[in-house]
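Lab notes, practical 5.
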Amino acid sequence: MKALIAAGGRATRLRPITWTRNKHLIPLANKPMLANAIEKLVDAGITEIGININPGDTEIAAVFGDGSTYGATITYLEQQGGPLGLAHIVKNAKSFLGSESFVFYLGDNIILGSLRRFIERFEKGDLDMLLALSRVPDPQRFGVPVIENGRIVKVIEKPKEFVSDFAVTGIYLYTSKIFDAVESIAPAARGEYEISDAHTWMIDHGARVGFEEITGWWKDTGTPKDLLEGNALLLNDRQAWQIRNEGIVDGTAVIRGDVSIGKNTIVGKNVIVRGPVAIGENVVLEDCYIGPYSSIGNDAKIHGATLENTIVFSGVTVKDCHIVDSLLGQNATITKAAAYPPRGHRLIVGDNSAIEL
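Output from the prediction step:
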């Protein structure tokens, strides 16, 4: 079995971060979001992976290379014509996937647990399609299955009226019959080839369709709030071997809870860190408080500040500020406003930013 990961798109809801970075490379628990998808697939025994990317994108290949670091073989598939929907991603990958069954995994989805049970359910049930479902408070954001007598009879994309509290998550298993579906459907009103339409086509044309509910957590990281929640979930989900101190910690520093500290990082005087927290390499912490659910990237410098529930990218400097529930982009500098007139906040703000002062 092969795998196809979706890692293209524009991620407009995450601007300005995504003006300069592919969404799937945003760090969660101090590693690129996309790494979680690759690791889940390899753990399930799937090592031949195609990654769908935007035309001309070289960022993702620069990070993951040929996949050998993860025990995988990665092929990069440019989505010809640009982002035209999830069904178009499948259609675009037909030559790579061939006649084999495959897993289609949206690279911005974070799940707890293994993919093995989904694969076993798909194979033992001799299915043509398996959809992973999750109960959500806001199903109108997703494709929603209509279930009658224990069977999915239809999938509705972003329904305006309540259909079910289940959402179709970003994990799908298909036989090659899915290619008949994606070749047959027409673009939806927004101009994209909807994967929900392909699913309904499969059902209407007699495909053997099953579903499996995700019993742990599942997170679609489409908004800044979702990213922070995904970061927190991954910090909580780390194994004991992933939580280690490879830095230099001053005797006055206080480290409590699950805190990982990278190589050459200095945790200086009067520092308090309360886990779960991930701190990268070559970081300098001085006279500061790092609260739970924070991730600090490599080469960051935090002095005289407090951080809680915040994702700090690499190269960030924070001085004399209190930061909560935030995303701090690569090489950003956050400092306290000067005390002399004219007093006020000095800002350089990107398009579609959200600021609370």
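Observations recorded by the TA: Helices lie at 33-43, 59-64, 86-92, 94-97, 116-124, 178-184, 195-204, 224-236. Residues 68 and 342 are 55 Å apart (CA to CA).
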